[in-house]
Amino acid sequence: MTSEIAAYGHPVDALREDHRRAISLIRLLTEQIDGLARLRPLDIEIAHGVFSYMIEFVDRQHHTREDALIELIGQKRPAAWRGIRQANQEHDQLAQHGEEVLATLKKLMKRPGVGGTALARRIRHYGEVLRKHFEYEEARLFGLAQTLLDPSDWRQIETSGTGQRDPLFGAEVEAGYQALFELYVNKVYEIGTPSSRHATASAAAIVDAAAAAVSGSRALVGAVRQGVSGLRDANRAGAKTLVSSRSLSAGLDNALKWSRSSFGETHAMSGKVVDTLHETLREVVAPLGAALDTRVRDFGRGHRRDRSKTSLRAQLVNLALRATVKRITSSGDFEIPTKNIEIPRQTIDRFIPGLAKDVAVRRVELDSAFAEVIQVKGAPVTRTILYFPGGGFMMAPTQAHRLMAARLARAARARVVLVHYRLAPEYRFPAGLDDCVEAYRYILAEGTPPKSMVLVGDSAGGSMTLSSLLRIRDEGLPLPAAAVMLSPVTDLSYSGDSRRHNSWTDPSLANDDGNLIAQVYLGADTAKDHPLASPLFGDLSGLPPVLIQVGSIEILLDDALRVAAKIRAQGGQCECEVWHDMPHDWMLIGMLPEARKALRRIVEFIDDKFVDHAPEEPMIELERQ
């Protein structure tokens, strides 16, 4: 355990980490079984594994170190024994309650068909008692220990309780705990309930078919008009030639030419009409066939954290995106731009509300770029969120990104630094990534503790987030507490299956068959699988905990799932949430109830990954001297 304690910098930090893991494990178990009509043998086996771990390791091995800490506190400050006795009484009661739950689970293993609600209620109560006990220990004992104990005392504590290494969170996970480890650490959550195909498949197919019919009708009318115009011109020319004939033989010859010309125009018109009608029918039928062929993705070990259905607003947004953005991105009329793409912001911002009056925005100049510091006026700030906005590496942040940053600042009690990194094609890879890492270095230099920092990015900004973590790690900088990636782009080689399987279901992004983004962002000199341009192909070991949110119908689904699997395979912690029927970057669409849910999950994840600290001095404001 010595090496594990050393990894946290101080034995008290290791004890707090044990607490955090135990609370998270109980919460996860409750979510896993709550509301199940019938408990499966696997559900009971997992619950039994959790409580075996709680009894065998947390209550015994973990508490052995706490006993040594408590004994030393009592020796050095006898007046503390009153609080110590209360903590011990709470622990004894908690251990007894845990044994009772374990005994109940042993009985349930013989009859697994019972419902999970009552058991979840009991486990939830256990988790609440456990949390209060841990909070009391941390508030009354851990702080006192840090004041009273000297290095020799901590060495004594460090060597306590090492008879059994942590079987679940140690360097090597014991085989008996492997399934539990995969559920806790290597998890893919499914959010929402998918329909038989996806929530807007039928409606989207009708919209696409109707749009194809309208477009085809216009093309058909155009073909008829063009044919009629050509026939009219041919008839006029033929009649004029016939009238001007000077002999009977010339008249007969001109009449024959006229008839041939008229027949040719009629034949051409009918052929054009038939071809247009055939193409229209094909375009009308194609989306209907695609909708029928669409199937729900099986996420294997994933489990359903939220069983709610897709909101009507989300379905309408999917349809609106499909009728607008998807038709633009799938038109195939794009050329390689010579400057970063400017969207019609004034038009778009009419549909996006402004920031609340209590939200402050300040511009901060970096060496090669700039950032906006967004925070709520007068609100306490204990965290810094470094936000890397998306935009295909070519488009600057929008008002939607500022609103997202403001919501994060308010919900997470944070200041959010929105980084305006340099954009392609004027500044190709790695210029934008350099700016992101430079912004991180700058915040560190201002005195912000890395344990109070979180990196967040959406879409292309998700790629910047993961690539920045790799650079930060490789350059020996202290890592942030956690990272969050929203609908991230992680593979510019487009090798994921979802690029093809979700090419129709994605309501906003087309598959980009010409790989325009890679051409613009990377140019000809950088490989599409460069580990910092496509971080899926990088070494993902040694990173802080990561949360990924992605929609089940996105073409970027595998960009998220494959990165999550690789992080876990290389020993890291990564939660991947697959939100059914959600479009790309739905978290930024504040009108959606699913966006508000996603924000709550992000904040819960951040809360869970580090303990808020109240610095003796106010956080240093980002400001150029």
Textual characterization of the structure:
The chain is of the alpha/beta class. Helices cover 54% and strands 9% of the residues. It has a 10-stranded mixed sheet, with helices on both faces. Helix 3 packs antiparallel against helix 6. The two termini are 45 Å apart.
What characteristics describe this protein?
alpha/beta, disordered N terminus, ten-stranded mixed sheet, 10 strands, disordered C terminus, single chain, 625 residues, 54% helix, 19 helices
SSE topology string: HHHHHHHEHHEHHHEEEHEHEHEHHEHEH
- CA radius of gyration is 32 Å
Poorly predicted parts: 1-8, 612-625
Which word captures the global form?
elongated
Distance between the termini: 45 Å
Tally of helical runs: 19
DSSP strand count: 10
Secondary-structure blueprint of this entry?
Blueprint: H1 2-7, H2 11-33, H3 41-76, H4 81-108, H5 117-148, H6 151-158, H7 178-184, E1 188-191, H8 201-243, H9 248-293, E2 303-306, H10 312-323, H11 325-329, H12 345-349, E3 359-365, E4 370-376, E5 383-388, H13 399-412, E6 414-420, H14 431-445, E7 453-458, H15 460-474, E8 482-486, H16 498-501, H17 516-522, E9 546-551, H18 557-569, E10 574-579, H19 593-609
Parallel strand pairs: 1-2, 1-10, 5-6, 5-7, 7-8, 8-9, 9-10
Antiparallel strand pairs: 3-4, 4-6
Helix pairs in contact: 2-3, 2-5, 3-4, 3-5, 3-6, 4-5, 8-9, 8-10, 13-19, 14-15
What's a quick, concise take on this entry?
The protein is of the alpha/beta class and 625 residues long. The protein has 19 helices and 10 strands. Strand 5 (383-388), helix 13 (399-412) and strand 6 form a beta-alpha-beta unit.
